[in-house]
Amino acid sequence: MRIVNNRLYIDGMLAEEFSSLDQTVEAIKSQRGLVWIGLLEPDHETLDFLGRELGLSDLAVDDTKNKNQRAKFDHYGDTSFTVLKPGRYIAENDKDRANFGELHVYTGAHFVITCRWTDWPYLGQLRDDLEQRRPEFLSLGSLGVLYAIIDFVVDAYPEIVDGLQDKVEDVEVELFADPARRNSTNLTRSIFVLLEDIAEFQRTTRPLPHVIDGITRDLLGHPELVSLIPRFADIKDHCERNWDAAESQRQTLQSAFNVHSALLSTQQNIEVQRISAWGAIFFVPTIIGAIYGMNFSNMPETTWYWGYPLSLGAMLVICILLYRSFKKRNWL
C-alpha cells in the first residue's frame, strides 16, 4: 500500500501535509477543515484502521476489500461511500481497447478518502487543479471534492466513445471492402471485440445517473451545498449522452454483423452454385466415358468409324450448352 495524498485544507487552502495516518485521524477528529487521504492499493489493515477510527461502515469497507464493485452511492449515517469506474482508451500491440478501473471514495463531514488500484486516474492532476485554480470546491467540503472527482472521471468517457466510434467506422469500411477481407474471420472477431468493449462501457455508465440522483438527494439536506445540484445535473446529462452514443454504436455494430452474416451467406451460396455448375458440366463427359468404358462386346457404337469423334463432339457440345446456360443465370 502507498499513501499518495495526506493533506489538510482549511477554507479551501492547503494548510498542512501529514506524514502518517495517525496525525491525519487526529486532525479529522479535531474538525480542522477537510482532510483528503489518497490510498493506492490499500491493504486490509489500513482499511480496518480507518474504518474503526472514522466510523466507516463495515459493509463499505468490505466492498473495498473485495473490489470488483459496480458504480454506486451508499449513505451510512454521517458517512457515504461512492464507487466509480474510471476508464481510458489505450492501444496494446496495435489493438485499441477500452480499459476500466475502479475508484472508491469515502466522504464524511471532514474527510475524503480515495482508494484505487491502478496508476490511473491520476488524481494528483485533479488535486493540483483544485488547489491552484478551483479552491472553492475544497472549501465546500467533502461533497465538493466528490463532485470534482466524479466530474474528472466522467470527463474521460468521451475519449472512450470517440475511440470506439473510430473502430466502428473502420468496421463499416471493411464490411464493404474487397471480398477477401470481408470474408475473413478478422472482421467477425473485430465486431465481437467492439461489442464487448461497448457492453462494458454501458455497464460502467448505466448506474451513474442513479449515483448522481442519490448524491443530489443528500445535498438537499445541506442548504450551503445546493449550488452543486446543477453541476451534478450537468454530469448526469453527460453520462446519459455518453450512454446513448454507446447504444447507437452497439446498434450499428449489430446491424453490421447482420449484414456481414448475410454477405457471407450470399457468398457461400454463390460458391455452391459455381461448384454445382462445374460439377454438372463435367458430369456429362464423365457419364459418357463411363458408359463406353464398360467394354461390353455387344456395343455397336464401338465399331462405328465415326463413333469416337462423335462421342467427343457430343461431350463438347453438351458442355458448351451447359456452360452458356449457367453463365446466363450468373452461376459462373
Task: Summarize the structure in short.
With 332 residues, this protein is an alpha+beta fold. It contains 12 helices and 9 strands. The strands form 2 sheets. The protein has a 7-stranded mixed sheet with strand order 2-1-3-9-8-5-4, with helices on both faces. A two-stranded antiparallel ribbon has the order 6-7.
Write structural notes for this entry.
The chain has 332 residues and is α+β, with helices and mostly antiparallel strands. Among the domains are: 1-135, Beta Polymerase, domain 2, CATH 3.30.460.20; 265-328, Up-down Bundle (Methane Monooxygenase Hydroxylase, Chain G, domain 1), CATH 1.20.58. The chain is rod-shaped and about 120 Å long. The two termini are 69 Å apart. The chain has helices at 21-29, 44-54, 58-66, 123-132, 135-139, 142-154, 157-175, 179-182, 185-205, 208-219, 229-292, 307-328; strands at residues 2-10, 13-17, 34-40, 72-76, 79-84, 87-92, 95-100, 103-107, 111-116. 60% of the residues lie in helices and 17% in strands. The strands form two sheets. The protein has a seven-stranded mixed β-sheet with strand order 2-1-3-9-8-5-4, sandwiched between helices.
